[in-house]
Each structure stands twice: as structure tokens, then as C-alpha cells.
Amino acid sequence: MMHFLLLFSRQGKLRLQKWFTPVTDREKKKVIRDMTAMVLARPARSSNFLQWRDLKIVYKRYASLYFCTGLEDQDNELLALEVLHRYVELLDKYFGNVCELDIIFNFEKAYFILDEFLMGGEILETSKEVVGVSMEAGDILQETMEEYMSKPAY
Amino acid sequence: MPAPIRLRELIRTIRTARTQAEEREMIQKECAAIRSSFREEDNTYRCRNVAKLLYMHMLGYPAHFGQLECLKLIASQKFTDKRIGYLGAMLLLDERQDVHLLMTNCIKNDLNHSTQYVQGLALCTLGCMGSSEMCRDLAGEVEKLLKTSNSYLRKKAALCAVHVIRKVPELMEMFLPATKNLLSEKNHGVLHTSVVLLTEMCERSPDMLAHFRKLVPQLVRILKNLIMSGYSPEHDVSGISDPFLQVRILRLLRILGKSDDDSSEAMNDILAQVATNTETSKNVGNAILYETVLTIMDIKSESGLRVLAINILGRFLLNNDKNIRYVALTSLLKTVQTDHNAVQRHRSTIVDCLKDLDVSIKRRAMELSFALVNGNNIRGMMKELLYFLDSCDPEFKADCASGVFLAAEKYAPSKRWHIDTIMRVLTTAGSYVRDDSVPNLIQLITNSVEMHAYTVQRLYKALLDDISQQPLVQVASWCIGEYGDLLVSGQCEEEEPIQVTEDEVLDVLEGLLVSNLSTPVTRGYSLTAIMKLSTRFSGVNRIKKVVSVYGSSIDVELQQRAVEYNALFKKYDHMRPALLERMPIMEKTATNGPTEIIQTNGETEPSAVEPKHPPPVTQPANQANDLLDLLGGNDVVPVIQTTMPTKPASAGGELLDLLGDLSLTGAPAPAPAPSSQPPFLLDGLSSQPLFNDIAAAAIPPMTAYNKNGLKIDFTFERANPNPNIAVITIHASNSTEADMTDFVFQAAVPKTFQLQLLSPSSNVVPALNQGSVTQVIRVLNPQKLRMRIKLTYTHKGSPVQDLAETAALELHGKQQSI
Question: What are the residue boundaries of the GAE domain, all occurrences included (chain B) (predicted)?
């Protein structure tokens, strides 16, 4: 299973953090610090895999964002790259040519999409369409409320 | 009270802050507003405020005061509230806070909600951060949802169940009935999560594993459909249909097929199919191949399939993509123990990976290279590894140096090579070697007696070049102290001897004492070395001066030593030669553990005023000692059946050519006097020759040993062309019911004879006299030969050892029977 999924910018600013194991706040901060330091220090043409403590770290850079995840020993690193890629595709489909700003201003949507794709560190749905349909339905439910309230939800 | 600003407004505002302080100010202001809003129990804008709080939390600011508000949002009826509430719960709460338990009831209600998306939210939250208590309370609900026909809920329930099982393994049984028809689903989401659930159950319980083995055919069928089916746009990734599901199924098959022949056989075909048909141009295909290889290596696959797997890894190694090379090296490292020979074939590629620019790949390649070193390739591999040591990053040097030492110790083809290799490591990576390498090297040097002159010469030359690497300097000063006389007399055989005077040597050692680069430990080594030279060099006055100067050194350790050495010169001069003479060979207990020679700066402690050291033993003290002791004293030369560092350890039990190795005295000792002969097995038989015929080299066979069912017969013949060599063939047979394995025959003869023991035909003596082990002994200068034999073997599981002696064998014709 994946232990965590982090998104951070080239300047080390955190854009999304998903933890699949119970971790204290202090520990979370340490992991984030370590990951950003290690990943940002990697030279351009290196492999996407690292060893950190007893986890395999897989990271991939998309434009200005680094997607970084920690795997257990028996997980498939090459497939993890595909998982990260699939998440980016889902974001791209939802936002239409997604960029970092989309994720900054709509971080809660990024979380919602993630929660339709992964759960408990494992893949929940392998079809892009199904995730898209679930997101649409959820958004419609929200909008219904908005219309009812006749003011924006948040 | 004006409406609180909207989330996106806040984000925009905060991003305009130019300094950290400005940002902090804005955030504090907003937090205060939010806090007062929470106090007023404002239902309308709670959702907005919590969302803003979550954003600020992501920036790193404390947000704990929003925890209860999340719970209130979850309890709300509005979907929007619930969505943000559950998100907040997942981000701000965890099982450490008691507050989270308040969620349980809400989640329970939501699990039974009419809207599936609300149910989904509840399952998601439970499945991500549910504590053990929550899981216990809600497992029943999850189990119910696992049986629903709604695929959206079913897949979420499956992963939620996985989380429950991880938290509370005892609840696993509860989910068993629901798994019955999980695999007959068509929906890929449900299939995938079901496979994950099954995997988790099989990993945790051997009973479950046995129970689910019957699913192997079904899994194979699903996998086959995935591969054979045409293009399915919904699940396609670069031409491969649902790679995520494929990999997960392969992983489950791996677990099911491990140590089970039937299951492994059932999946052989599909594995071969996947291995050969998968597209390798994109990462996706390689991910599937990687998982397939891991599965093939773990189950009881047939050898053809295993070879296919290793070849795939070999192809991976040549791939341009660094990730794939990394993954190949990692997998090869896992398989190198079990399929050593197959991996050896790719050795040159692996060694090339040492030169890769990527740090992760270099590390893996280094680990794998060390695993591949053996007696045959040691020279070539060591060259590459030393080159790597020269040029690698400092983070690798320590591990590489340790690895080189270990490999050299195990497989060194010759002592000179071993010493050269260690010297090379010390000169190139001297500051990174482990602390215990100095005593280990010293011990190794003392053991290689014939290399002393060569070693000290090389170390001296290295010192002239560079005195900054402390381990090298320490070893060098110790050696110069011990063998300085060899250095000055220019006795080196292995290479051109250098001309060094005593003064020059003392210059170097004194230079170490004063240099800023030397650590206190190094200074201690050099002072002692100088002291030792007082017995080996002629000019003692200079040494006396140095020692007395350091009697007032600030360094307490040096001062103490100097004072004691001074005392040695003054009051105990008669003891000085004895105390400072050559060190004997040191015993080694284990290769890596702490050796007994921890005080191995090789010094004597004059304060202890010990008696004379035992005279140096020039033979390596190993198992030979046993036979030596038993034959009573030094008049017997042992035949050693150990693997010495001078010979490659490729075949176990390889015997030494005694004639080449041990130093026998030139002049043959007089034939043993009758009075000193140890008692024979049967005494007092008349020396009635059975055959008088010398010319016909037919000496009748005799039984040398017959005990506990093991019988050893000797047959004799004379070797052509040298009539002075008698060839004895031993035949070992076993009349018991159990085989005797690990059979080892050793023999010792008096010094007047020379004996050569060739390799045995095997080391298993089959039971019930079904066969015998033969071994040839060649004896030079045979007269009345008496031989002590030692037998070791394993019988019915327990090791047996025995000693015996043959009677005097008169190998030129006459002999006594026993």
C-alpha cells in the first residue's frame, strides 16, 4: 500500500498531502521536510526511485509540481509511476489542462478526485470515466444545495 | 456581522503576501475571525470557514480548533457540508484524539444513507483513518455493503474492509462469506478492490491462503481475458487493458502459488504468455513484466520459465530507461541467492552499471556486484570494484571498502594479491574504512610470513607518498616497527628491494610523531614502532633520545608510553630484547566479530613485565593442530585439508599439495628409533612378511580401520616411473543402514615421509555397502610408514569423529598385518 502522497512545488511549498497511515503532526512535518529536500536535490536525469527508511519513494515531476509517494517493499514501483500519471490525467480531465494554480485554488476538489481514485493506499477505481462520473455527480449534489441556498457554498 | 470572505478570496489574498511575516499576520487575522464565527455557532458559513481553515492548515498553521466544527459539518444534512466535513476530519483528526470517536455515530448513519455518494464519503473516511474502535463498531455495516449489488459502493466497501482487517485482524473471518462471488463481477473497480481484499486476507492468514487457492483458475481466466480481449477504451493504458488489475492479479497469484506445486503449475502457461506477449515499449508494459518476473521467481515455476524471467531482467539491464535498470538490479539482488549461476551470466552488464551516473543505480549495482563475487571471478571483479572505489561518491566509500575487505578475505587467490588489494583500499579510501580493518589487516600480515619483507617495503613507500590517511599510517608504522630489519636489509623477493637506511626509517616515523595530520592513536603507533626498532636496528641512541623527549609530552597516552619505554632502557634493559621481539601469529576467532587481538597496536606493555613470548610458530595454526597434538609433539607433519587463502575456495574439501606448501626440513631426519615409536594397534606381531617379492609391486591390501560400520581398506601399488613413490588407495565402505555424508579422511605421517592426498571420489559413503569412497594417497620415501588417520562424517544426522593409527607399513615389500 502507499503510505502517503505529497504534492509540492519546486520551491518546496506543499500543495496536497494525503496520509494513509496514522502519523503524528510532528512526524508529518518531518516526512514533508525530508521528501522535499531529497526529491528537489535530485539531478535532472536520475531515476525516479529512492530509498528512504524502509520505504521506496517514487516521485515524478509534472511541470512545476512534484508528485511524491512512499511505497512498501512489495509494491511495484513502475506501477506507482502509472498511478501518479493516472492521477494527473484525472486532474487534467476535470480541470481541463490542469496547472498548479488550479490545484492551489481548488485544493478541495483535488482531494475529492483523489478520494475517488485511491483509498487506504490502494487503487479504488481503474477506469477514468467512472471517476469522472462520480465527481460530476458529487458536484451536482453540491450545486443543488447552492441553488437552494441561492448563494455560493463557500 | 459581514459574511466571512470566500475561500478563493482568502487564497488570493494570502498569495499576495510578500514576506512570511505578512502572511502570518493575514492568517492570524482570519483565524481570529473564524474562531469568533465558530463561537457564534453560525451554521450557514461553517462550511466556508472550515474550508479556509483547511487551506491554512496546509500552509503549516495550527488548525486544531476546527476539529469539532468538522464533526458538526458531518452531522449536517447538506452534501456540501458533509463533503468538507469529512475532508476536514481526514486532514485534522486522527485516532490519537478522542474527538474522533464522536464521528462513529455519524458515519454509521451515513453508511445507511439513501444517497450513495454520502455512503461513499462515509466509507472513504472510515477506510482512510478509522481507528480500531471505530472499525470494530462499524465492521458489520461494511460487511453489509460488501454484499450489495451497487458496484460503486461495493468497491469502496472492499477497500474499507481491507482497512478494517489491517486495524483489527480478528475481524477477518467476518468478511469471508461476502468474498464468495466477488470475482465474478464484471466491474473492474470491484474486481480490483476484491483482489486487494483477497491479497490482504491471504497475507495475514495461512488458513485463508489455503482456502483461496481454489480461486487460481478463476484468476488465471480473468487475466487471460484481459490480455486477449480487444481494445477497451475505458481501461486502456497505452494499448494494454487495465494494467493495474493485471499487476494486482499477478501479485495475488504469487502469494497463492508460493510453495504450492499445483497452483504453480496452473499458472505456468499464463505467466509465460504474459512474459512473452507484453509490449515493452512503454513503462506500463514493463511494470507488468516486472511483476510477472517477481511472481515467476517466487512460485515453484519450471526451470524454463525461470530462465525466461532472468533473461527479461537481463534485457531490462540493457534498457535505456534508468527506472527499468534500477528495478532490474533490485530484482536480481533478490534472486542472486537462489539462481546464482543465471545471474552470473549478466555480470558484465551489472559491472557496467557501476559507472552509471545515477546514484540509486550505482548503489544497487555495487550491492549486486559484491553478491556475485566468487573464487573464479575475484580478480576481474576486484579490479572493477577498486576502480569504482576510486571514483565513487563519499557516501559509498565506507560500504564499498567493507565489501572489498570481505570479498578479499573470502576469495583471495594469493596472499600477495590480498595484501595488495587491502593496500589499494587503504591508499584510495583510507579515511572511510571501518575501525576494525586496522587490526584485521595487521593480523593478516603477521600470518603471511613470506610476505613480510614485501609488505613492509610497500607500506614504507606508501608512507613516503602520503601520511594523511590514518588507517594506512597506523598499519604502516606497526609493520615498520615489526619488520624494520627486513626493510633495511633489502631482502624483498617479490619486487625490487629499495635501499633504505636506518636513519631514513627513523626520520619517517619521527615525522609521523610531529605531523599535524596524525591523530593521537597514530602517534601512539609510531612511538611504539620506534621503540621496537631499538632491538632491530643498531643505532639505539637516536631512539633513546626520541623516547626521552616524549616523556614530557602533553598527550597523556604518549607520555605514559614514553616514560615506560624509558624505564625499559634504563632499569630493564635486559628484558628489552625479549619484550620487543617479533610478534607471534595471532589467532582469529571470526572474520567480522571482535578478534582477540583488540590490543592490536601490536604493543607489548612493559609495565606488565611479562615473560618471554612463545617462539614464533611458522605454520598457520588451524585444524592441523588437532592432529599435531595427537601424534605427540613436533615430529609429525600434518596433512591439512582446509582451504587456505593461498588456494581458491571453489570446491570444498580441496586438499593441499603438501609437497609444495609446507616447509619441510631439507635433510631427512633419522628414521624414528624403535624406542620412540608410539604403541601400535596390535603390538608384538612378528614381522612376517606376507610377500617377499619386492619387484612385483603387489602388496596385499589391508584393512586400516573398521569400526561402527565404517571400513577403510588400503590397497597398494608402486607408482611408475618413480619407484620411491607408493600409491595407496583407500576404499571406505559403510555397512550400516544410513549413509555417511560429509565424509572427510585426513592422514598424518612422520616428518621423514612426504605425503600427498588427492581428492576423494565423493564425500558420501552409501549405506549397506552399496558403494565406496576412494581416495588416493601418494607417499614419497616410503620405509616403515606409520600413519595416523582422522575420520569425520555425519551419520543419521549427528557428526562423528574418530582417530586411528595404522601399523607400520613396510612399503617396500614387507608389512605387518593388523
Answer: 697-810
